[in-house]
Amino acid sequence: MSQLKEKLYLCSGLLSGLCIVVITLLLLAQIVGRLCGFIVPSAEDFAGYALAASTFLGLAYTFREGGHIRVTLLIERFSPLPRKIQEGTILVLSFCLLCYLSYACSYMVYESYIYDEVSYGYIPVPLWIPQTTVAIGVVALNLAILDALIMVLRGKQPTYSEQEDSLSLEEI
C-alpha cells in the first residue's frame, strides 16, 4: 500500500510538470503563429486549464516532499511533545478543510457534467474535463494529509517534516 501511495504522489507531481511543458508549448506555438501570420485558437484557454491542472496536481507531491511553506522558525522552537500536538492539530484541521474542498470540487465537476457546461472560446470545451484535474489534485492532497496525520497519530515523524529537518541541518 505504501508503494501505491508513493506512486500516486509521484505520478501527480509528474503530471503537474507535464502541464508546465504543455503551457510552454502553447505559448511557443502562439509566438511562432504570430510570426507566421496565424493564430492558435483557444490557446489562452488551454494554457489556463493546464495552469490549474499543474497547480492542483502538484499539491500532494509538494506536500510529501516538504515543499509547502510552513513557519519553521516557530515550529523548530517547540520541544518534541508540543511539536507533535501542534502537528496533529494542524493536520486534523487541514484534513477537515480538505474533505470539504474535495467534496466541493467533485460536486462542481458533477454539476458541470450534468448541465453540459462548456467554455466560451473558439473551441468549446466541456468544463468538467479541466475541472477533473483540480478535483483529483485536491483529493490527492487530502490523501497525503491523511497519510501524514496517521503517521503523527502513530508517533512517527511525517515525511514532509523529515525533509524540512534535513534541509535545516544542511543550512547549518
TrEMBL record:
How is it placed in the membrane, per its record? Multi-pass membrane protein
Q: What is this protein called?
A: TRAP transporter small permease protein
* Intracellular or extracellular location(s): Cell inner membrane
Checking InterPro entries in the record gives: DctQ, TRAP_DctQ
Q: What does this protein do?
A: Part of the tripartite ATP-independent periplasmic (TRAP) transport system.
Keywords attached to this Swiss-Prot or TrEMBL record, sorted alphabetically, are: Cell inner membrane, Cell membrane, Membrane, Transmembrane, Transmembrane helix, Transport
The record's note on quaternary structure and interaction partners says: The complex comprises the extracytoplasmic solute receptor protein and the two transmembrane proteins.
Q: What is the lineage of its organism?
A: Bacteria, Pseudomonadati, Pseudomonadota, Gammaproteobacteria, Oceanospirillales
Q: Which organism is it from?
A: Marinomonas pontica
